[in-house]
Each structure stands twice: as structure tokens, then as C-alpha cells.
Amino acid sequence: AKTYQNYHPSHSIQNPFPEEFTDGEGMEWTRTSPGRRGELGDYIFEDERGEQDYVDIETMLLWDVRPAAAAEAVAGEDGDADGAEEAAEEEGTEEGTAAEAEEEAA
Questions:
Q1: Which residue range forms the structural domain that includes residue 80?
Q2: pLDDT tens-digit profile of 72-86?
Q3: Could you tell me which of 30, 28, 29, 23 has the C-alpha nearest to residue 72?
Q4: Contact 54/32 with Cβ under 8 angstroms?
Q5: Helix (H, G, I), strand (E, B) or coil at 60
Q6: Which candidate, 21, 25, 87, 101, has a CA 20 to 30 Å from the CA of 68?
Q7: Same domain? 58 vs 74
Q8: Which helix (H) or strand (E) segment is 29 a member of?
Q9: What total of structural domains would you count in the chain?
Q10: 46 and 52 in contact (C-beta within 8 Å)?
Q11: CA dihedral of residues 94, 99, 103, 106 (deg, nearest 10)
């Protein structure tokens, strides 16, 4: 598959990732040495089979790889919304239980 860089070789993506980091799933990522990036890719990681694999920054962005701190911040934002929904559901359940108790008492 051709990428934007195939058509515009001078185009480069600025690296948004630190040299070494762990993502939200616990996978460790390490930047490859500058001399090997063209051959191997920008980062090295260990896949689920325990084998080392290499990937470029463009692919990492497509995979939505994020350092753990960034992933937690996004999850925290989502978690707050879920927490509010859960609290509303719990309140509704408690009210329903109280109404059922009143019906049983009557």
C-alpha cells in the first residue's frame, strides 16, 4: 500500500512518543537507533508470542498506541462519564426497590 510519504518523500511525521514507554496494555516500546530506523522501523516491541517486532510511527498512530499516562487520562475522562451513568442507574434501582417495598407493604 502506498502512503503519503511514497508520493512526498521529504514528508516526515514528528514523533509524538517518548524514547521508551509502556502503553495502556502493558506493552513496552523502545525507539530503535537512528541508523536502523530505515531498515527496521521506529520502535521495537515484544508481541503477544514474546517475539520482538518493529513498527514505524505511522503504524503506531493507526494502531492508536498511547503511553500509559495518556491512555489512563483518556480512560479517566471516559470513566467519569460511565461513573455518572452507573450512579444514575443505581439511584433508579434504589428508587425502584423502595417503590416495590411500598407495594408489598400495601
A1: 69-106
A2: 666 666 555 444 444
A3: 23
A4: yes
A5: helix
A6: 87
A7: no
A8: strand 28-31
A9: 2
A10: yes
A11: 110
